[in-house]
Amino acid sequence: xxxxxxxxxxxxxxxxxxxxxxxxxxxxxxxxxxxxxxxxxxxxxxxxxxxxxxxxxxxxxxxxxxxxxxxxxxxxxxxxxxxxxxxxxxxxxxxxxxxxxxxxxxxxxxxxxxxxx
Amino acid sequence: xxxxxxxxxxxxxxxxxxxxxxxxxxxxxxxxxxxxxxxxxxxxxxxxxxxxxxxxxxxxxxxxxxxxxxxxxxxxxxxxxxxxxxxxxxxxxxxxxxxxxxxxxxxxxxxxxxxxxxxxxxxxxxxxxxxxxxxxxxxxxxx
Lengths: 117, 143
Description:
Chain A: Belongs to the globin family. Chain A: One of its GO terms (molecular function) is heme binding. The structure holds 2 protein chains of 2 kinds. By secondary structure, chain A is mainly alpha-helical. Chain A has a single domain (1-113), classed as Orthogonal Bundle (Globin-like). In chain A, 68% of the residues lie in helices and 0% in strands. Chain A contains 7 helices and no strands. Chain A is globular and about 40 Å long. By secondary structure, chain B is an all-alpha fold. Chain B has one domain (4-139): Globins (Globin-like), CATH 1.10.490. The longest helix of chain B has 19 residues, at 53-71. In chain B, 36% of the residues are buried.
């Protein structure tokens, strides 16, 4: 969804092959694999809620020094994740739930931006 | 820029939701007040409890304005002109667009909750663009 709704984010995935249309993106195996990587990493944050900064320290350096990703993109991805959760959990994704998750994605985005220089 | 396909998708969503305007608008506002408490600063005169008449009434107003905007996609500036004046000169929701972005996020969450799978990536993209365009127009006259 990030690559579809905010197409400029495709700039970070030049070697992912065909990203030319929503259908291509949705069916792209590299996109799926990367999605799994990112969500698994989120899972780590959830297991380490008291220490998110440390959990993302290396990834922050990576995103700055090697990947050169503008941290604004972390915010965009966070918002998209919230919408995906809403579409899967429907009414169970209550306002209180949304509140907690918006805070979490904010904290993760902040942790990922922390080591930028 | 809204493509022809985007416009179709936006109008379809609005038609699908037409019986739920008040409900969706109110839910979006409620989510916004809970998720982004700073937005409550614009409504010190409101009863912000769950289900309040004021939230329901205001939600209906917002949703109706969006439905109207969806019917005038080729002329958003004009269609939203009054509201643009209101937000810029009277309400001064500040900084321009930022709080509106938060409402946009909450509106999309409401649609995702209610449409589930039907809130496809394509629909999501079209609606995100639509709400961005609306926010832009509302912020046009800030300075």
